[in-house]
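Hey, resending since the last one bounced:
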Amino acid sequence: QVQLVESGGGLVQAGGSLRLSCAASGRAYSRYGMGWFRQAPGKEREFVAGVSLSGASTYYAESVKGRFTVSRDNAKNTVYLQMSSLKPEDTAVYYCNAVVAGTTPAFGSWGQGTQVTVSS
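The structure tokens again:
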């Protein structure tokens, strides 16, 4: 299992930037790729970005490609999401999780998430 604590969210104007962090504990962190997901009010949780176990490969949802960058620091058991050129439609609670098959959450339990609010 893996325990996850997301941080770094906040209120930002459209066009601004934020950097999210996900601190992971548990041995499972070193066995999985990691992903970021988000859930906007009234919508289902969706995949945003993923990074392979080594960190060498990254992949993104079309809606964030070119604006978001995912990375991981395995020495710190931490995954990051650098978000730039933010849009109001990026407003959501952001979560991280281990992933399997690219975009599927590995675990059913989630952290508390971190709120990102983008004003127009």
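The chain is about 0% helix and 50% strand.

Sorry for the duplicate.
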